[in-house]
Specification:
The complex is a heterodimer.
Chain A (H helix, E strand, L loop, with lengths): L1 H4 L6 H46 L2 H16 L2 H16 L3 H31 L1 H16 L2 H12 L3 H25 L3 H9 L4 H30 L1 H5 L7 H10 L2 H29 L10
Helix pairs in contact in A: 2-5, 2-7, 3-4, 3-13, 4-13, 5-6, 5-8, 5-10, 6-8, 7-8, 8-10, 9-10, 10-13, 12-13
Chain B lengths: L4 E12 L3 H9 L4 H8 L2 E12 L3 E5 L6 H8 L7 E6 L2 E2 L5 H10 L1 E4 L11 H5 L1 H6 L3 H14 L15 H14 L4 E5 L7 H18 L2 E6 L2 H7 L2 E6 L2 E6 L1 H6 L4 H7 L4 H4 L2 H4 L10 E3 L4 H11 L3 E6 L2 E7 H8 L14
Parallel strand pairs in B: 3-8, 3-9, 6-7, 7-8, 11-12
Antiparallel strand pairs in B: 1-2, 1-4, 4-5, 9-10, 12-13
Helix pairs in contact in B: 7-8
The chains are: A mainly alpha, B alpha/beta.
């Protein structure tokens, strides 16, 4: 009956040796290659430092003007522009301007990085069922594995700082854009694609004239989701040395500063709402032609 | 009329499934669509199709759904690759073309109109019409000029900057037709192009097509499941069933001499007086009733003309010469339903 009471587990020493083996192997790997990998990411780090400094150094009225302009270009809605201006004024008034700029910087860079990697990957996945079958479980893992778990190897390799923070954010925020690009292209009307083929389109012409434009609503939903998920990672990223609104939130949690936590938390919410509304409205405007009606 | 052959299809087979090539032999040995499906899990798409399509005429290919007609038309521009066989266009082997040659062939020689229009929803009407030209790399100004010409020609002037979703089905298909014509391809493939439209619009579109054809003289290959449509626009008709050609010929030949019960079933409800012309029911000889009818006058018009002239027979004329004689009785015989096949009772009330 012993078998039923005790799970036939690996011996304690063996298990310890196994774990130790993995740990040592990875530390060795990171000791040997850490510098090279850091060097590889250096340009990205310099860019992030420069971009963050730029946002912080720019006079606040100009920044608010730029945000308002971007909101207008994206959404074409006075309400959203006013909301944007009021939110940023309030953020500045409550002394969170610098942290907010740092957060905007990392979110922007993370989003562009995810778009730059995610859309091409999504396109490749839509072309090959085999690639889709291989990548989908990886995306599942990226989305479900607790963030703290992949922070460990990232920190071991790259230490703490902006680049590991950015990587952590991207691991979490990349899957939706990849998934929705893949899905969007797969859902493109087969007849339209056939028409493109029948008129002698090359592969590039099909991709840029038909597949991407018709997949745009889904791709855009993916961009929106990616931004939202990147924002959700702000607090966790601050644990490994990313400046921004996550830092005071973390401090508030460990010291029970209710007001500090609430204010910075709400600032993150405000950013999320602005990004979401602007990107959604922009996505909708791209779809204007889908509206029916026989108006001339 | 003798005309040169534009598209020639020889011994074309298409068998869907993992091992189509080997199945061709089974079909040659007599396997049917059903037996191939049951024994080998392969689907017989096309079964030894041989068609010579004359230049500058409208060739209709008809059959019920599942007969392989849409599969066949997609072989002509190789949207579907055949399992075996030969397709020649202007003496050029389509199946031997490289990717680049095939693209140029599709861009310049053969364009297509689709059942569900297949327009680009994010492009305006004028950009949709110019789509084929854009793919060819035509510059913007010329593209717009040529697109505009075809938009006017199909009667969509004023809608240039609308999006397809803002147009009705009939208007969308005019865009599809203009898009296909804009590339100046000599061959036009039309895959059930008017089937998704309601009957009145469908007749309109047929008239537009016939109008255009009178002036353009393209080689049009038109797929339909609608016999009235086939008889209305076709110079020649091919009837497909289970991927095989059952009968080919002019509308008159099909109506007068159906190859089998399948075709007979097809034609039993059509208005024969509108399809048959006097030459198809005439006899040799001549008479002196005084009425002369051109050989291509359809019976629907010839019969009232005879009644009006109060005669029972008339001379059939071609190029100013008498080529035969028709009587009212011949005409009535011609439009009467063919001998009904066994098991079907003819009832009189």
């Amino acid at each position: 009956m012993e078998l039923f009471d005790d799970f036939p587990s690996m011996g304690r020493t063996d298990l310890r040796d196994l774990k130790k083996g993995i740990d040592f192997a990875f530390s060795d790997f990171s000791r040997d290659n850490g510098e090279a990998i850091e060097g590889f990411f250096d340009p990205l780090m310099y860019f992030m430092v420069w971009f963050e400094k730029l946002l912080m150094a720019a006079p606040w009225p100009i920044m608010i003007l730029i945000f308002a302009l971007l909101a207008w270009l994206g959404a074409r809605s006075i309400g959203i522009v006013i909301g944007t201006i009021v939110s940023f004024l309030a953020i500045g008034y409550f002394g969170m301007w610098e942290d907010t700029m740092a957060t905007v910087a990392i979110i922007s860079v993370a989003t562009f990085l995810c778009i730059g990697l995610g859309i091409p990957l999504g396109i490749l996945m839509s072309r090959s069922n085999r690639l889709q079958a291989g990548v989908t479980p990886v995306l599942d893992i990226m989305q479900t594995i607790p963030s703290f778990v992949y922070l460990i190897p990232v920190v071991m390799l790259l230490g703490i700082g902006k680049v590991p923070g950015l990587i952590a954010v991207c691991i979490y925020a990349l899957p939706p854009i990849v998934r929705l690009t893949n899905l969007g292209i797969r859902l493109v009307d087969k007849e339209v694609l056939e028409a493109a083929e029948a008129f002698g389109s090359s592969y590039r012409q099909k991709l840029f004239d038909v597949q991407i434009p018709l997949a745009l609503p889904n791709i855009f939903a993916g961009v929106n989701q990616t931004i939202m998920m990147a924002l959700a990672m702000v607090v966790i990223a601050s644990m490994i040395g990313v400046k921004g609104l996550g830092v005071p939130v973390l401090r508030a949690v460990s010291n029970q500063y209710l007001a500090l936590g609430l204010m910075n938390g709400l600032a993150i919410v405000a950013l999320a709402v602005i990004f979401d509304r602007v990107s959604q409205q922009y996505g909708k405007r791209l779809q204007k032609h889908r509206e029916g009606g026989h108006g001339v | 009329m003798v005309s040169d052959i534009k598209v020639s299809i020889k011994n074309l087979y298409k068998i869907f499934g993992s091992n189509g090539k080997d199945m061709v032999q089974k079909v040659e040995e007599g396997a049917t669509k059903a037996s191939l499906q049951a024994e080998y899990k392969h689907v017989l798409g096309l079964n030894n199709v041989n068609i010579d399509i004359p230049a500058r005429r409208i060739q209709v290919i008809m059959g019920l759904s599942g007969s392989g007609k849409s599969t066949l038309i997609r072989h002509l521009n190789r949207l579907i690759e055949p399992t075996s066989g030969e397709i020649m266009v202007d003496g050029e082997d389509v199946l031997a073309m490289s990717d680049v040659e095939l693209r140029n062939f599709r861009r310049n020689k053969m364009s297509m109109v689709f059942q569900k229009f297949a327009l680009l929803p994010h492009r305006t009407v004028i950009d949709n019409v110019g789509y084929g030209l854009k793919i060819k790399g035509t510059d913007k100004a010329e593209m717009n000029e040529r697109s505009q010409k075809w938009i006017d020609r199909v009667g969509l002037s004023g809608f240039e900057n609308n999006y397809p979703a803002q147009l009705s089905g009939g208007m969308q298909q005019r865009v599809g037709l203009a898009r296909a014509l804009a590339t100046d391809a000599e061959i036009l493939l039309m895959d059930e192009a008017f089937s998704a439209l309601d009957p009145l619009i469908r007749n309109d579109m047929q008239d537009i097509l016939l109008d255009l054809q009178e002036e353009l003289h393209k080689t049009i290959i038109f797929i339909t499941h609608d016999l009235d449509e086939a008889l209305n626009i076709g110079d020649n008709i091919v009837i497909l069933r289970d991927g095989a050609v059952i009968q080919q010929g002019s509308p008159q030949e099909i109506v007068l001499d159906p190859a089998d019960d399948y075709v007979r079933d097809f034609i039993k409800d059509i208005n024969r007086a509108r399809v048959l012309d006097v030459s198809s029911v005439m006899k040799t000889g001549s008479n002196d009733s005084g009425l002369e009818l051109a050989s291509d006058v359809i019976l629907e018009l010839a019969m009232p003309a005879m009644i009006k002239a109060d005669v029972t027979s008339a001379n059939v004329m071609r190029d100013g010469e008498v080529i035969g004689v028709v009587t009212l009785a011949d005409m009535i015989g011609g439009i009467a339903r063919p001998e009904s096949h066994e098991g079907e009772q003819v009832t009189y009330r």
